[in-house]
Design goal:
By secondary structure, the chain is mainly beta. The chain has a six-stranded mixed beta sheet with strand order 2-10-9-4-5-6, with no helix packed on it. The chain has a four-stranded antiparallel beta sheet with strand order 1-3-8-7, with no helix packed on it. Strand 5 and strand 6 form a beta hairpin. It is globular.
């Protein structure tokens, strides 16, 4: 059973930065592509960034975050990160991680971490 534990969210002013972390249980973390998703109130969950398995040499981003967010991974720590810069109020959402290249691989989700961008 794979479990996801997200952390690092908080309240930040527009233009600010946050770094999210997602630690994944299980010894096969390194083989999975990983993705960060977010869900704003009243909206569907959307995929914002993905990173390939292994060395994580390939990453992809939603147009809405391209150039502002950076996804990375540390296989030794079973952790995937999301560095978020130049945050905007529309980035306000609960952020989650899951395995998979373009859609979630596992049906179970972590508790997520709340990001609120507001002055």
């Amino acid at each position: 059973q794979v479990q996801f534990v997200e952390s690092g969210g908080g309240l930040v002013q527009p233009g600010g930065s946050l770094r999210l972390s997602c630690t994944v249980s299980g010894s096969i973390f390194s083989i999975y592509a990983m993705g960060w998703y977010r869900q704003a109130p009243g909206k569907q969950r959307e995929l914002v960034a993905t990173i390939s398995g292994g060395t994580g040499s390939v990453s992809n981003y939603a147009d809405s975050v391209k150039g502002r967010f950076t996804i990375s991974r540390d296989n030794a720590k079973n952790t995937v990160y999301l560095q978020m810069n130049s945050l905007k109020p529309e980035d306000t959402a609960v952020y989650y991680c899951n395995a998979g290249r373009s859609s979630p691989l596992f049906a179970s989700w972590g508790q997520g971490t709340q990001v609120t961008v507001s002055s």
